[in-house]
Design a protein that fits this description.
alpha+beta, binds glycine, binds manganese (II) ion, 2 domains, Creatine Amidinohydrolase
Length: about 475
């Protein structure tokens, strides 16, 4: 290699290292090309002379002058990649000519850069950053929206999920979400009762058609979210002890998620031991000792916006009792029966019926119910739903399609005082897995965490790297001063 070429290479390497060391940010977000393709796909579905309008989610108050950690509106994120509040996106069916003669087919108004605000609450992209990082060209600040010459007389229909309610004021900005909504209503001559002109149903139908089929780029992120969730389940299985609290177990899951780069959970983590497992979306997780009960752990990592939804039910002491084993095996068999059905073209209800049939037959045999129709007393929820940017993701089709990602999650819940032998009371089991629908079958995405009784017991028997980390209870007054 020539000396000159070598020096040049070294120079570029140094520049690259300098840039990455400056940022050290994740580099695997969805690409601008993905978001552009989604906007174009929506445009193709829109009716003539219409515009799709998406406002960002509001910032919500947590306490006094503290806000909840901001979560972007999944639609806004899907179509732009923008993760900040105080923004509105307009996607027009036809190319527009403004009242001042400019042409555009989409407009994006975002919060402006603000040195003071950014020092307190974090970096902002601003219009220039959106242009550079997200590749959207017709981008302006929220302040420019009021006077922007949109020709609304040429628009017959506004396709929108609606206006966010409970909109908090921004302490920092002249044009916040509240202003954007007011200005939009004035510009478009909005009437609350005009459902034809302001069409919410159409928005959900069209975006359901798009969002229910995952692109390869989305699948990379979903796989990662699911894998991370499985790692959380496995590490908890290895570390679990009867003396642990539900909160402690929740913390271990979420620690493992963060270790692997998941920015959040996709829904409030559900860690219900014993009777608490019978509350389907139990999120308090306040029991201080799980004891020798089963623990139902429905915990999903969110990775770059996409959420997993994985449930494992495990015995805290490492061994399923005879009754727990019987119920667990029944739920497992129901899940297997549903798996058999999954493929492109299959009906959702066929899979649901197959799982329900197995549970009903099993509960009859165990004498827990007397009539098959009573199955819903102990299996009171549906079998499946789509996942993606929402844990219960947007969808449209009545049958399965290649590229859909759904959960399969049968469960049996037997609260105390149920009309069956006492020995079953307090047992709650859900097994929830995430699957990708393929042409002739499915792929089990959550294959990385055990589902079979013997595999779970083996995993629990393993040594845990967290064993030393699980500290004894802290008694006040025993801390040493430094
Ligand atoms: N984690 C909520 C659900 O399974 O639907
Ligand atoms: Mn689910
Ligand atoms: Mn779940």
């Amino acid at each position: 290699m020539k000396r000159q070429t070598f020096s040049l290479l070294l120079f570029f390497l140094c520049v690259f290292q300098y840039i990455t060391a400056q940022t050290d940010l994740p580099t695997d977000y969805l690409s601008p090309a993905f978001h552009e393709s989604r906007r174009q796909a929506l445009r193709e579905l829109l009716p003539e002379q219409s515009v799709a309008v998406i406002f960002s989610y509001p910032v919500r108050k947590f306490s006094n002058d503290v806000d909840y950690i901001y979560h972007a509106n999944p639609d806004m994120y899907y179509f732009t990649g923008y993760r900040e509040p105080h923004a509105v996106l307009l996607i027009f069916k036809e190319s527009q000519t403004s009242t001042t003669g400019d042409n555009y087919k989409e407009l994006f108004f975002v919060q402006e850069r603000n040195e003071q605000a950014e020092r307190w609450t974090g970096r902002r992209l601003g219009a220039e950053g959106v242009r550079k990082q997200l590749g959207i060209q017709n981008v302006y600040t929220g302040e420019e929206f009021a006077d922007f010459p949109i020709n609304f007389s040429a628009i017959k229909k506004v396709v929108t999920p609606g206006f966010p309610d409970d909109v908090a004021d921004s302490r920092w900005d002249k044009a916040d979400l509240f202003d954007l909504i007011q200005q939009f209503k004035t510009k478009s001559n909005y009437k609350e009762t005009d459902h034809k002109q302001f069409d919410k149903n159409l928005f959900f139908h069209l975006t359901g058609q798009l969002r229910e089929i995952k692109t390869p780029e989305e699948l990379v992120l979903i796989r990662k979210a699911v894998e991370i969730s499985c790692m959380g389940q496995n590490e908890v299985m290895k570390a679990v002890k009867p003396g642990m609290s539900e909160l402690e177990i929740q913390g271990l899951h979420e620690f493992v998620h963060k270790k692997y780069g998941a920015e959040a959970v996709g829904y409030g983590s559900i860690v219900g031991s014993g009777e608490n497992g019978c509350i389907l979306h139990y999120m308090e997780n306040t029991r201080t000792r799980v004891g020798n009960d089963l623990i139902l752990m429905d915990v999903g990592a969110q990775y770059h916006g996409y959420t997993a939804d994985v449930t494992r039910t495990i015995p805290a002491n490492g061994t399923f009792s005879a009754e727990e084993r019987a119920i667990y095996q029944l739920v497992y068999n129901a899940q297997e029966a549903a798996f058999e059905i999954l493929k492109d073209g299959a009906s959702f209800s066929e899979a649901s019926d197959a799982a329900k049939e197995v549970i009903a037959d099993g509960l009859l045999k165990l004498n827990i119910i007397k009539n098959k129709e009573d199955v819903s007393k102990y299996y009171p929820h549906g079998l499946l739903h789509h996942i993606g940017l929402d844990v219960h993701d947007r969808n449209f089709s009545k049958t399965m399609k290649q590229g859909m990602v759904i959960t399969i999650e049968p469960g049996i819940y037997i609260p105390s005082d149920s009309d069956c032998d006492k020995k079953w009371w307090g047992i709650a089991v859900r097994i929830e897995d995430d699957v990708l629908i393929r042409k002739n079958d499915y792929e089990l995405l959550s294959i990385y965490s055990p589902r079979k009784i013997e595999d779970i017991e083996k995993m629990i028997a393993q040594i845990s790297a967290l064993d030393d980390f699980v500290l004894p209870p802290l008694k006040s007054g025993e801390k040493k001063a430094f």
